[in-house]
């Protein structure tokens, strides 16, 4: 039995919880910037593109595992709001362990088919780190979801910071000691054990993990499969974009390194907080389930204001910041950086509508929105245009299609 006194109290998502997660997100974003800065300063643009592809490959798989975060948040939140005594029950963390092992095996077994095309250097080390890292991150994502569902926001924030601090610590050691590319590969997956540290250190986290949700492993996985598919599609556009860009380009070279860094830097101020606050968003939309569309108004308005400011800063100060922070090899115009930021706003809007769709249990529509958006972006990346132009077109137009799918589904949902 779980000691009820150690389980966080239930209730609406409060401003305090948003502040705590927001503070953790700021730390996470700064650490992410620090890793990219150290890698870009330590490696030439061509070498940075090799690191960025591995960073993107891990981000793609880790992003897909966020489907476990979304489903466990929804299941735990609903179970605590409307407890039921009858029927089978499961522990989401056990499901995460199974999915993590299967994911690691799948990566390792399939590596001979794709690793030679994706990893230009340190091929088998990259495969090994990718396998171990994704197994750990499945546990990480599910623990985040369980904590979000149970209002364990302090532990939620600690887990986000633990992941980020683990990465930047290894990256800093790599920069100082001179481990070059190999060290940055290790840094990419270093935060995947943060879930274990938080679980061992926090009685509240252990109590939240002990909570069981109604249903069987099959029913949980059925719902999670749609979330994982959608999260995987979103991860292709967000963290996995360098892999997608490489797959649709003959040779990235130095130009590819500049484009990847510029896209990463311009989207991080919007997408890093949104990704970290998925638990807050889904919990908010579950609490507002009688107002499906109206509950989107405040988050969308806040995003519009922040996005407009980000576009302005990127267009005016972006080129100088890029050259000053990363060196004269990294050159990009203000207009290009502003368009990259505008495209990031579109992906952020798609993230918001997707979270609302998950909370409304519109799993198929959620997955369809992201999959269609990703497919459209891939097709647009194949256009016979310069690398910079087709990157903007793909990242801006693809998400608009997915947003339409989500909004239509929410409009048809009960309580819309």
UniProtKB/TrEMBL annotation:
State whether keyword Kinase applies: no
Which coarse location class describes where this protein primarily resides? membrane
Tell me the compartments it is located in.
Answer: Cell membrane
- Span-the-membrane segments of this chain are 21-40, 46-69, 90-112, 124-147, 224-245, 257-276, 296-317, 337-358, 365-385, 391-411
Report the protein name in the record: Integral membrane protein
Q: Which domain of life is it from?
A: Bacteria
Ordered alphabetically, the record's keywords are:
Cell membrane, Membrane, Transmembrane, Transmembrane helix
Organism classification: Bacteria, Bacillati, Actinomycetota, Actinomycetes, Mycobacteriales
A single GO cellular-component term from the record reads: plasma membrane
Q: How does it sit in the membrane?
A: Multi-pass membrane protein
């Amino acid at each position: 039995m779980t000691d009820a006194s150690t389980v966080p109290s239930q209730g609406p998502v409060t401003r305090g919880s948003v502040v705590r997660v927001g503070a953790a997100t700021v730390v996470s974003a700064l650490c992410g910037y620090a890793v990219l800065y150290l890698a870009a300063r330590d490696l030439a643009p061509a070498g940075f593109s090799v690191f960025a592809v591995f960073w993107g490959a891990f981000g793609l798989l880790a992003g897909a595992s966020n489907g476990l975060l979304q489903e466990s948040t929804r299941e735990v939140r609903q179970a605590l709001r409307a407890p039921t005594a009858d029927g089978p029950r499961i522990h989401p963390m056990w499901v995460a362990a199974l999915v993590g092992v299967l994911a690691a095996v799948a990566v390792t077994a399939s590596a001979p088919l794709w690793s030679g095309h994706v990893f230009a250097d340190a091929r088998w080390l990259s495969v090994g780190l990718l396998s171990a890292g994704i197994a750990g991150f499945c546990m990480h994502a599910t623990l985040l979801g369980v904590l979000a569902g149970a209002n364990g926001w302090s532990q939620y924030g600690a887990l986000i910071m633990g992941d980020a601090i683990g990465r930047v610590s290894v990256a800093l050691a790599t920069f100082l000691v001179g481990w070059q590319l190999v060290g940055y590969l290790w840094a990419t997956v270093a935060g995947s054990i943060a879930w274990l540290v938080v679980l061992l250190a926090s009685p509240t986290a252990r109590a939240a993990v002990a909570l069981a949700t109604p249903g069987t492993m099959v029913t949980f996985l059925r719902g999670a499969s749609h979330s994982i598919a959608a999260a995987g599609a979103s991860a292709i556009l967000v963290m996995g974009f360098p892999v997608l860009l490489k797959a649709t380009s003959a040779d990235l070279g130095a130009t590819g390194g500049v484009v990847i860094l510029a896209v990463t830097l311009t989207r991080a101020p919007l997408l890093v907080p949104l990704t970290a606050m998925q638990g807050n968003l889904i919990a908010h939309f579950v609490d507002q389930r009688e107002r499906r569309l109206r509950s989107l108004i405040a988050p969308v308005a806040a995003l519009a204001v922040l996005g407009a400011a980000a576009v302005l800063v990127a267009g005016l100060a972006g080129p100088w910041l890029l050259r000053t922070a990363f060196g004269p090899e990294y050159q990009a115009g203000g207009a290009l950086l502003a368009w990259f930021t505008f495209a990031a706003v579109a992906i952020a809007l798609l993230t918001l509508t997707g979270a609302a769709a998950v909370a409304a249990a519109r799993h198929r529509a959620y997955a369809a929105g992201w999959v269609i958006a990703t497919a459209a972006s891939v097709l647009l990346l194949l256009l016979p245009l310069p690398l910079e132009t087709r990157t903007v077109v793909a990242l801006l137009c693809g998400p608009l299609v997915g947003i339409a799918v989500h909004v239509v589904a929410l409009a048809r949902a009960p309580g819309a």
